Amino acid sequence: MADNSLERLKFGPNKYSAFHLLMARWLRQRGHQERYCYVTLGGTELRDVLSVRFMDHSLISNVWSYEENKARFKEAQASSVRFAAAGVSVEVRHGSFFSHQRQSELPHIFFLDLTGVCAFGDYHIQFGELFQNEVIREGDCLLITSHLGHNPGWKQVIKQFDAEFAILGVDDTHSPSVRSMFRRAHPSLTLFKGLCRNQLQSELGITCFGAVKYRDTTPMGIYGYDVAQGKTELRTFISGVGDGYFDGVGGGFCAAEAF
Ligand SMILES: C[S@@+](CC[C@H](N)C(=O)[O-])C[C@H]1O[C@@H](n2cnc3c(N)ncnc32)[C@H](O)[C@@H]1O
């Protein structure tokens, strides 16, 4: 049941600092097209939209911002009216991010800016459908924020990712190994589940180009993905992040195991 209570969502600077770091890494390493469409989550302030506009006013062609909470959607609409007066156009939609239909051949940047955990429920099914329907396709960039402060218990984590842990050789009787893999990779494992559900792991090559952990009101991580033609092999997908982990709290590179 959607929560429709009125509440302004004002996030702190650490969130945007982490987002900017990851966008900078992507723009420098992978961004090659001149223009992208941007699909994001609304909240009430739409602050990420201002950031991408500031990075380069011509980076983004269209912006679609989804908000499923009715009260926040109204606030997001009011924000979009203020933005329009300043020349920043955002189409705010009341509905699910996962209902987005591709309307442009331009490559897209998708930002699933969650406050919750991108691991349980039906995220893998929803992402699987976006891949299957080519809403997210080769040439796109996908960013996901996910809550690192809690999980429903390691038993539930092991149940959710038992197949992936088996492939990766994670010792699921050793809580520190489960915790470490969960923190560094749970959105990746969710995306991989979505690919496998639709037998797309030999058709789409997803790579994680970096992840930044930060603290807003709670500990969070932001993870960045490149989508290309090719295949996604789980071990390479997880190990391929290389030096791409950053600790936005301590301010420095971070070992995968310490993420
Ligand atoms: C973290 S906030 C977005 C903040 C925004 N990016 C900003 O910088 O101001 C996430 C919002 O997305 C909404 N939301 C979560 N999952 C959603 C989904 N699948 N579709 C649409 N809205 C969703 C939540 O209600 C919440 O208001």
CATH superfamily assignment?
Answer: Vaccinia Virus protein VP39
In CATH, the topology is named: Rossmann fold
Q: Which CATH C-level class is it?
A: Alpha Beta
What is the H-and-E element order?
HEHEHEEHEHHHEEHEE
Portion in strands:
15-25%
What this model shows, in words?
With 259 residues, the protein is an alpha/beta fold. The chain has one domain (13-258): Rossmann fold (3-Layer(aba) Sandwich). It is built from eight helices and nine strands. It has helices at 13-29, 47-55, 70-85, 123-132, 154-160, 162-168, 175-197, 234-239; strands at residues 36-41, 60-67, 91-94, 108-113, 141-147, 204-215, 219-229, 245-247, 252-253. Strands 3-2-1-4-5-7-6-8-9 form a nine-stranded mixed β-sheet, sandwiched between helices. Helix 4 (123-132) runs parallel beside helix 7. The radius of gyration is 18 Å and the shape is globular. The structure holds S-adenosylmethionine.
Can you give me a brief rundown of this structure?
This protein has 259 residues and is an alpha/beta fold. The protein is 37% helix and 23% strand.
Key features of this structure:
259 residues; alpha/beta; Rossmann fold; 9-stranded mixed sheet; 37% helix; 23% strand; binds S-adenosylmethionine
What's the layout of helices and strands?
Layout: H1 13-29, E1 36-41, H2 47-55, E2 60-67, H3 70-85, E3 91-94, E4 108-113, H4 123-132, E5 141-147, H5 154-160, H6 162-168, H7 175-197, E6 204-215, E7 219-229, H8 234-239, E8 245-247, E9 252-253
Parallel strand pairs: 1-2, 1-4, 2-3, 4-5, 6-8
Antiparallel strand pairs: 5-7, 6-7, 8-9
Helix pairs in contact: 4-7
S-adenosylmethionine binds next to strand 1, helix 2 and strand 2.
